[in-house]
Amino acid sequence: MEITYASSSSRDIASIAAECSSSSSSLAAFSSMPSIRPVKVISLQYPTSPSSSSIGGGTALFVGWKSKLKRMTWLDWIQTLLPCSRWIRTYKWREYLQTDLMAGLTVGVMLVPQAMSYAKLAGLQPIYGLYSGFVPVFVYAIFGSSRQLAVGPVALVSLLVSNVLGEIVDSSDALYTELAILLALMVGILECIMGLLRLGWIIRFISHSVISGFTTASAIVIALSQAKYFLGYDIVRSSKIVPLIKSIISGIDGFSWPPFVMGSVILAVLLIMKHLGKSRKQLRFLRAAGPLTAVVAGTTFVKIFDPSSIKLVGEIPQGLPKFSVPKEFAYLKSLIPTAFLITGVAILESVGIAKALAAKNGYELDSNQELFGLGVSNICGSFFSSYPTTGSFSRSAVNHESGAKTGIAGVMNGIVMGCALMFLTPLFEYIPLCCLAAIVISAVMGLVDYEEAIFLWRVDKKDFLLWTVTFITTLFLGIEIGVLVGVGVSLAFVIHESANPHIAVLGRLPGTTVYRNKEQYTEAYTYNGIVIVRIDAPIYFANISYIKDRLREYELEVDRSTRRGPEVDRVYFVILEMAPVTYIDSSAVQALKDLYYEYKSRDIQLAIANPNRGVLLNLTKAGVGELIGKEWYFVRVHDAVQVCLQHVQAIKEASKATAATSDPPPEEERPSFLQRLLRQRGEDMSIPELESGYPNPSSALSGGTDPQLEPLLSRKS
């Protein structure tokens, strides 16, 4: 709906003139001014009932869940409870089966040696790594929503387990293993709870810079912790770099050449195979075959030469894991922080990988459902002697590159692990520990993300600072402190940005009715007596003081070089563009009232443009709508400018009339008839001339203009 009028203010132009001068002669002069040209303004529609956005957060969430449950069919329920049913219904046996089986076999061959290596990193016997790569893999294939994610033991979680449990009990104690299994149960329960309550969004507050800095530092610590298998002597178990380096240096007398040479050769082979597998498509099988090659080569060497100075894995129990209930619940309280930390790592790493793979393969993935699937796999795994597992970046990448289409690849992966547990464990006892260490180091070297640091330095110094702080604190103060500091600084940045939102002074782009940031568009111009401000954030108690301070600054900082229109000596109107404001709380509403009274005391009118439904409803409920005046609310900034500009013109004319009557010029300074005619012609400018500040001769030739056409646009003859 559009309405046409000369002024939208209850303070009509005559009253403004009266304020400028109370003399009758001034009013007489004012009444002789040219009539104000009508302008077209779009009428703002006020909400008559609360919208869904105005309902409380908890109520809105409950209403949303309730309506969603009502719409769900039996097929939706099956797909929610068993995500595997989505790909089972559409499975193309001839097209997918062969690639799925090959991908599962490839990742399974890669997982067996990696699982034993990561178990050693966690301070556990290698058999528990194999157990962790068996039951959770099958469970995830049923309850997980990603079709390419490879679940199992990973280096970062293994380091967290080792770091925490090592402070409670010695790794040689049976209690150590029980606590690792209990930790898997706790992590699974936390993941399920967060998935069911749809709390995965919490982790979004952790910046990618924090994740990158944390994983880079952790990768260095993991690599150093594996140095003992290369050097031939024990070093202290720690998640800090200084104790590790001190221990390595102090024990140098126990250095042994055979494991160092063998481990270095195996590591070089692994890195070369990984590089070839990544760089050449026809050789990509080498990436997955690397760990198996290392194990076979190391075992063959030991079998042939039987070197006494190279330590071996030792005896590994044969057979599938047996059902057992996790024990030692007395230590539950001390494991809660670690369970939360591992859950956070699972969300950051696994869900991120799963979403990326889903996007590449063209299907939708619900992060909360994915989190629930990971939780169920950890819970079920804990009853079969598994320690915490999550999605692996390297194995998931290999799974995707090998052509995995569905969870059948995961099932095949589990079958390979089951065959290894049943038939191959007698061969595993001859695997050199330095080979397993080389596999771990090769895997974590990909986590050293120095390229991210270089990128952040070029793009955003603030994110680079965040990366550096997280990296240094994790490296020197430990994983737990590093994560807490990184998350704390990340949240501090979020709070700072929220409390200091971006606010822009808008100007009009020439030849349009579009208003944009003057700093971004230097050609944009403003109008004398009018300040247009856009607030690019929700307004609430934490940022309203900052917004008020900036508005006062904009009122004083007037750049006259880009201003047009009638020349006045100060600001009479402040227009707030509120399109980006999605929410306004009660504190901000009260502050807006105070701002209005402050402006009113200085004879400045506040106008609001384009508020959304929720914001407008809150302002109306609080009485701000009536306080400011409904006629000062506009759909567009352009509408507000039209009305304000006419008021500014009226104020200028009233001031001129007052000056003319109060101090008449001497006879010799009075203008001639021709001068008065030219001045009258200048005063009788059309709206396009008014907005530009320059007379347009073509407008005089073109005659009258249609008041229903878009005003303030210059017209060419």
UniProtKB/TrEMBL annotation:
Keywords: Membrane, Sulfate transport, Symport, Transmembrane, Transmembrane helix, Transport. The keyword NAD does not apply. Residues 520-644 form the STAS domain. Residues 656-717 are annotated as: Disordered. CDD domains: STAS_SulP_like_sulfate_transporter. GO terms for cellular component: membrane. The chain crosses the membrane at residues 101-119, 125-143, 150-169, 175-197, 209-231, 255-273, 285-305, 329-348, 404-424, 430-448, 464-495. It holds the Pfam family Sulfate_transp. Its main location: membrane. One of its GO terms (molecular function) is symporter activity. It is a multi-pass membrane protein. InterPro entries: S04_transporter_CS, SLC26A/SulP_dom, SLC26A/SulP_fam, STAS_dom, STAS_dom_sf. SUPFAM superfamilies: SpoIIaa-like (SSF52091). The keyword Signal does not apply. It is found in: Membrane. NCBIfam families: sulP. This is STAS domain-containing protein. It comes from Trapa natans.
